[in-house]
Structure formats: C-alpha cells, structure tokens
Amino acid sequence: MLTAPLIEIFSSLQGEGPHVGEAMTFVRFQDCEFSCKFCDTPLSFIKNKQCRVEWPPFSKKFEKYPNPITIVELGKILQRFSDTTLSITGGEPLQHVPFLKEWLSSFKKSGPRKILLETAGIHWQELEKIVGLIDIVSMDLKLPSSTGMKSYWEEHRQFLKIAQSKEVYVKIVITEETTDEDLERGASLLKAYSGKIPCILQPASAFGSFRKIPTPAKIHQNEKTMRSLLGEPPLGSVRVIPQLHKQLGIL
Questions:
Q1: Torsions phi, psi of 194, nearest 5?
Q2: Antiparallel, parallel or unpaired: β 50-54 and 136-140
Q3: Which of helix, strand or coil describes residue 200?
Q4: Cα–Cα nearest to 191, from 231, 140, 154, 151
Q5: d(CA 140, CA 150)
Q6: Are 176 and 205 in contact (CB under 8 A)?
Q7: Partners of residue 8 on adjacent β-strands
Q8: pLDDT tens for residues 116-141?
Q9: Which residue among 37, 87, 114, 224 sits deepest, i.e. has the most Cβ atoms within 10 Å of its Cβ?
Q10: How many CB atoms lie within 10 A of CB 45?
Q11: Residue 242 in 3-state DSSP?
C-alpha cells in the first residue's frame, strides 16, 4: 500500500502566481532535497509524525492525522473540501511520484477538479510520468544568485519542454542578491516559447534568518530587465506578484 508523508492540508486563497486570490485546496508534501536561502517551509526538512488538517478553513484550528498518509485516507480527508482546484505543493511533490500517480489517477475520477502542481521545475523525468494527470504547472526557475545553490539550467530546459503541453507559468523568486546575469539566463530559456509562458517575479519575504529581501528599486530594476529581455505582450509576459497569503495572514 502506497503512503506519503504530508505536512498539511487546508483550503485557502492561492497566494502566488497568476492564479493569486483563487480559492484552492492545498495538499503539502514533506521532503525537499534543495536548500534555497529564502525557503519559508522548514517542515519540509524534518520527519513530521503528523499531518495537520485545518478545519474549518481560515480558522487556524487543526485536526491531526498520523503520517504517512495512505491514498484512501487522503481521499476521505479531501471529501470535506469542495474547492474546484487542488494545489499539490511542498516541499517537492515530485519526490513522491509513485504515490502521486496512483492517487491522482483515482482522484481525477471523483469529479471535475483542476490539479495545480507547484514544483521546483527540476525533476523533469518525474514530471514526464504524471504530466497527463496535471492541469496547471507552477514551475520555479531557481536562480543561483537568489537561492545560494548551484544552477539547474539544463534541468529547467528539459522541464519546460514537458510542461509546455499544459497551462504553465514560471515563478522566479528575486532577492537583493539576484543578478542580471541570472535573469538573462532565465530569459533565454523562456524566449523559446514566444511569450506563451508567463514569467512571474516574486519578491522574497523575510523568514527565519533570511533578510535579503529586495528593495522597491531592486524589484523595479529586475522587472525592467526581464521585460527588456522578453519583450512586451504578446511577445513576453512579465509580472511582479508578491506572496498574498503572507500579507493576509492566512495559510
């Protein structure tokens, strides 16, 4: 019986990207092999003995379920939520592809809900196995000057080739340390798609010890740089969208 470790399940407003403000049910998976400097999900890196389920929504009251969760248990929990879009987030959900494949295959039969996958945009071979079960792909483009990690340009390129068959947008977290050189490398990947893939610049938020948040001047500079590289619509689509859920104080 397949199981997966989950951090939390809740209904809220999408806080990031072009679907910001839309009501969704979120299933947050544990585990992430990356270490972005601006990461705001520390529970991804520990073994969570329990998965918390917020009920009712927006209450910050939680029910607890023992980890790992089975597909049957997850299905029963999700019956309580009626949002028309389900966001699979993390952590990195694509580290749990066997579970995702079996779960989503059965979940898609239960009703006409859209599936949005939020991912680092690196595990392209794993995406290939489940892309037919996904409706929307929220793909991070990890700039090394922002994340403090190595670059993943080739992995991102392979990922975009697969993701383009779906509704997809690219999210780039920018910090005070983001370089024009990295933005140019990112733009070069997106240029191949002639503006079909929206580029969302997301200013990093302060969290934990991370304080390298971009100034208004830096945000404007980065947006201007990307727009000059990708062009105006319909050739390119660049928007700055901050994390709405943090501003509203919701999950």
A1: 50, 45
A2: unpaired
A3: strand
A4: 231
A5: 14
A6: no
A7: 28, 52
A8: 999 999 999 999 999 999 999 999 99
A9: 87
A10: 14
A11: coil
